[in-house]
Amino acid sequence: MGEMIELTSADGHKFQAYAAGDPKSPRALVVVQEIFGVNRHMRDVADRLAQSGYYVLSPAVFDRAERNVELDYTAEGVKKGLELRAAIAESDVMMDSEATAAKLSPRPTGIIGYCWGGTIAWWGATKSKSFRAAVTWYGGGIMQTKEAVPNCPVQMHFGALDKGIPMSDVEAIKQSQPEIPVFIYENADHGFGCDDRASFNAEANKLAEQRSLAFFAEHLA
Question: Active-site residues: which are they?
Fold first, then answer.
């Protein structure tokens, strides 16, 4: 089990982050939330990744708009999450991501994100130089900046049944970034990595996590 700690961004904003794993670990990961906050699922993900030898921090990005946000996977939760996401500037998201990475420095640090966090992980690769590797899971906003130049190796995961990220978008991303490994899970929908969602796909989740950990093991050595 981890704990909540407090971090401070460059502009003085104080925000929480869930910390998991051994603080003395030589490798680190930033785990970026979905639009549902640093909820039970995100804490479970952080705990699980920490077991592979990482010190993990999952920043509460929503603290910019509202603190202590933990939303359910319901229509009401989606509505609230989208409202909070819209209230936070991209520059502030990046500031908090950089502050989280700074807390982990000088260890080689990767970033992995899910849903909205998948897009933020892509920003971490393309708008920051704080990360040695980035992994994105069903990041719906990647398409908008698909031609951005990554500053570190990137790996991507998408579900073939995801109506919010059509395969035409995934193919466009692959064409813009031919050097990036992009994995498509044929029987998986959006959120296939979350066991609190009806779309959870245990087989796809297991394989995607194995690939993600192998990728980090290679690039954060």
Answer: 115, 162, 190
